[in-house]
Design goal:
The chain is an alpha+beta fold. The protein has one domain. Helix content is 16%, strand content 29%. It contains two helices and 16 strands. The strands form five sheets. A four-stranded antiparallel sheet has the order 4-8-9-10, with helices on one face. It has a four-stranded antiparallel sheet with strand order 12-11-13-16. It has a three-stranded antiparallel sheet with strand order 3-15-14, with no helix packed on it. The longest helix has 53 residues. It is elongated. The termini are far apart. 36% of the residues are buried.
Amino acid sequence: MKKKQLGFTLIELMISLTLGLIVTAAAILLFITGQRSVMMQRGVAELQDNANFGLNYITKDIRLANLNTSTAAINDQTLYGGVVLTSDASDDVVEASGVKSPTLPTTIVVADALLSQGDDRVAVGTSPQWTGSSNAEDTSGTALTSDQLVIQYLPQYTIDPKTTPTDDTDDEYVGGFDCEGNEIRFSAAENLRIYVQRYFLREDDNQATNETSPLALACDAGYYAIGDFHGDIPATGSSPAIPATIPATAPTAITNYGGAGEIIMKRVDHFRVLLGVQSDVAAAASTPASTTHQYLSIKDYMGMTAPRPRILSIQLGALVRSTQSVGAESAVRADQQFQILDQTVKLKTSTDPKYIRQVVSQTIALRNALGERE
């Protein structure tokens, strides 16, 4: 008897291979979809942490602007004013009868690129000064420049007696930390220090191999000494107010200022600053002036006729991206437009991988600039 041969027919083999390939393809597709979802979720979580934590850190610092000054009102002519707009060398500093009225003491002359700047108010400086670095352009394709915000304040000092309360020769002034993380501490025999902090975009040298000139929001802090209040601050008391006029011991420079600073928010493509101002505008000749509040760019504010209005608040806007790319995710479009405060922007053409981006903004009331002060 002939024995039957056992096995698969060609048709059965082809069907089984086809079914196997379909199952394998479905598994691969499910895996790829899961990977893309993980990348998107990781990018969103990282973006939220970077943007929100960084913005909260900046907000806390900016609320210090104008702290312990003798004048609550802030404008470009307020000596020691919380928003640093002019120095003695600025072209748009107000001058009357040969006397200039800058925000910084007239004895301190710094480059315009180390003051609050925006748009093309002045020519940009050279790094690590303000260079207007930005990865954004307007809807017509014109490159934009990021802004720079500079504030100053007299910290809330107390005295550290150094465990020797009856001996004040070793006492030190203590006033917290500046935006670079440096402790504010110095000998009580020295003059008090007013701190100056600037927020700006610069290139981050710590970058991945597939990134092209990534930008980060950094803060550069310095200080200048003013007056001699030695012995005027009790250990549990408040800081004295800055005198309304420059004292005899006039400062001549801002120490440790003008460097690259410390990064406080990674991967920021554009940074925008608006000044919230209070101005009195008469509706008609027969009616009294009505108080109005509006937000202006730094350039537009300095373009107003002096005396310029009082600054009451600050708006910050930043276009932040994730540090991890999301591959070829179709939901992330290269031509996407973003609204950053008063600007509609899009990204410059780049060969970088795709990233998740988000606009974060914050309005900060300058509580040290509200009300009146003698």
